[in-house]
Amino acid sequence: xxxxxxxxxxxxxxxxxxxxxxxxxxxxxxxxxxxxxxxxxxxxxxxxxxxxxxxxxxxxxxxxxxxxxxxxxxxxxxxxxxxxxxxxxxxxxxxxxxxxxxxxxxxxxxxxxxxxxxxxxxxxxxxxxxxxxxxxxxxx
Length: 140
Ligand code: FES
Description:
disordered N terminus
């Protein structure tokens, strides 16, 4: 007896081999889902590097920069970095747009950046909550 006619196979039943039919995802649906996800994600523009990175809300700015190959540190900064603990001040960045979209300055930043302009942040202390434009190694 023959089972699994061509008509049954096209309707999504299992073929004669007993293997489930492969369901291919519609690539246009996947793309539009990805587009809508990135549209709702904060966008960080690294001005000097001419690079844009998307981040989950609340992401650490230093981590996102490093993850995207952005060099935050000067030569001396690389040698003296505390690794993101707010102790060295070497991860300083200038926020040229979207300062309101970052977490408020921490006490550590107030101490480390007291002689710097208000739009300077320590990348390791700043959490991304919306779009922002960042200049790395400001003044260098
Ligand atoms: S990495 Fe040391 S203060 Fe940010």
